[in-house]
Design a protein that fits this description.
The protein has 305 residues and is of the alpha/beta class. The chain has two domains: 84 residues, Winged helix-like DNA-binding domain superfamily/Winged helix DNA-binding domain (Arc Repressor Mutant, subunit A, Orthogonal Bundle), CATH 1.10.10; 197 residues, Glucose-6-phosphate isomerase like protein, domain 1 (Rossmann fold, 3-Layer(aba) Sandwich), CATH 3.40.50. It has 15 helices and five strands. Strands 2-1-3-4-5 form a five-stranded parallel sheet, sandwiched between helices. β4, α13 and β5 form a beta-alpha-beta unit. α9 packs across α14 and α10 packs parallel to α14. The protein is elongated and about 75 Å long.
Length: 305
C-alpha cells in the first residue's frame, strides 16, 4: 500500500513516467502487485483498448478479477476505475494522429525514390496478404451461422464509422439487392439510439471497425448484444474491442503500414462480396425475385443501376 497519497496522472505521458518510476524503484511510495503491474503495463501498451473496453472486458483480457483494476486505479491516486480510464479516453480523443503518422511513414518511404508503379505494387502486395489473412482466419461454423443470420433475420443493420463507413455502405447496398429490410444503422436525422430502438431480439447488427477503433461502434455493438440482437463483428484482430461484444467475428487485416496512410479495405471488401453472394445462394428464388424487382424499379424510374 502507498505510504502517502498519490497524485493521479492526468495524461498518458504522465502515466508512462509513473510506470517507469515504479519499475525502477524511484516511486517507492507506490507498490503494485504482480497482477496489477501486468494490467498497468498492458493498458499503457494498448491505450485504444484501455479507452473503450469495460472494466469486466479488461479484466477478462488480462485474466484477473475486476477488483484488481479497481485497486490499481485507487493505488495510483484515482477515485475509481472510471477516473483512471478517463486518461486513456482523453488520449484517444485528443490525439487522433493515426492517419498523419501513417502519412509520415509514407513520406519517409517516398525518400527512397520509389516510382509510382512500385508504390502501387507494394500496396497491392500487402492487400493480397490481407486477403489471405482473412481467408485463413475464417471458420466454416462462423461463416455458415453468419450467412444464415444475414439471410433470415427479420432486420439487418450495418454500422461503421470513418473508413469503415465505406465498407458498411457497400455491404448494406449489396445485401439490400437480394433481401428486404437491410440498411445502415445510423440514420442522420435520428441517430444511433433511435435506430437501435427499432431492432428486436433476433435481429442482426453488423459492426465494422479497425484501429483506431470508434468508441461509438464499440458501444453500439455492446448495447445491441445486451438487447439480444445478434452481433457480427468485422474487424482487424481478435483483441479488437468490437470482437468482445460479437456473437461472430471475422478478421479482415488492414495492414498497409509504410505503403499508405490509411487502413486497407481489400480484405473487408472481398468478405462483403462473399457474404452477399452466399446469402443470395441460400435465398435462391426469393433472392432472385428481389433482384429482378430492383431491376424493374430502375427501368420504371429510367435510371442506371
Amino acid at each position: 500500500m502507498p505510504t502517502g497519497k498519490a497524485i493521479a496522472p492526468l495524461t498518458l505521458d504522465q502515466l508512462k513516467e509513473l510506470r517507469e518510476g515504479i519499475h525502477t524503484g524511484k516511486k517507492q511510495n507506490i507498490r503494485l502487485g504482480r497482477r496489477s503491474i501486468k494490467v498497468f503495463d498492458g493498458m499503457i501498451a494498448a491505450p485504444q483498448q484501455a479507452a473503450v473496453f469495460s472494466i469486466s472486458d479488461l479484466a477478462k483480457q488480462f485474466n484477473v478479477n475486476a477488483s484488481t483494476l479497481s485497486r490499481l486505479a485507487r493505488t495510483l491516486g484515482y477515485a475509481g476505475f472510471s477516473d483512471f480510464q478517463e486518461v486513456f479516453r482523453r488520449y484517444i480523443a485528443n490525439t487522433g494522429h493515426f492517419y498523419s503518422e501513417q502519412a509520415s511513414l509514407l513520406n519517409q518511404s517516398a525518400g527512397e525514390q520509389r516510382s509510382q508503379i512500385e508504390l502501387t505494387s507494394e500496396i497491392a502486395d500487402k492487400e493480397r496478404r490481407n486477403i489471405d489473412g482473412m481467408l485463413n482466419a475464417i471458420t466454416p461454423q462462423t461463416l455458415s451461422a453468419t450467412v444464415d443470420l444475414l439471410a433470415h433475420s427479420k432486420r439487418v443493420r450495418i454500422y461503421g464509422m470513418r473508413q469503415a463507413f465505406a465498407a458498411a455502405v457497400s455491404l448494406s447496398y449489396m445485401l439490400g439487392l437480394v433481401r428486404d429490410d437491410v440498411s445502415l444503422l445510423n440514420i442522420a436525422e435520428h441517430g444511433v439510439a433511435h435506430s437501435l430502438a427499432q431492432l428486436t431480439p433476433g435481429d442482426t447488427l453488423v459492426c465494422i471497425g479497425f484501429n483506431p477503433y470508434s468508441r461509438n461502434t464499440v458501444m453500439t455493438g455492446r448495447v445491441a448484444r445486451e438487447q439480444d440482437i445478434q452481433v457480427i463483428a468485422i474487424t482487424d484482430n481478435h483483441a479488437s474491442p468490437l470482437a468482445t461484444a460479437a456473437n461472430y467475428t471475422f478478421i479482415t487485416p488492414t495492414h498497409t503500414q509504410g505503403a499508405a496512410f490509411s487502413n486497407g479495405l481489400a480484405a473487408t471488401t472481398v468478405l462483403a462480396e462473399a457474404l452477399t453472394n452466399l446469402v443470395a445462394q441460400q435465398l435462391g428464388e426469393q433472392g432472385l425475385l428481389k433482384l429482378e424487382y430492383h431491376e424493374e424499379l430502375l427501368a420504371a424510374l429510367q435510371v442506371e443501376a
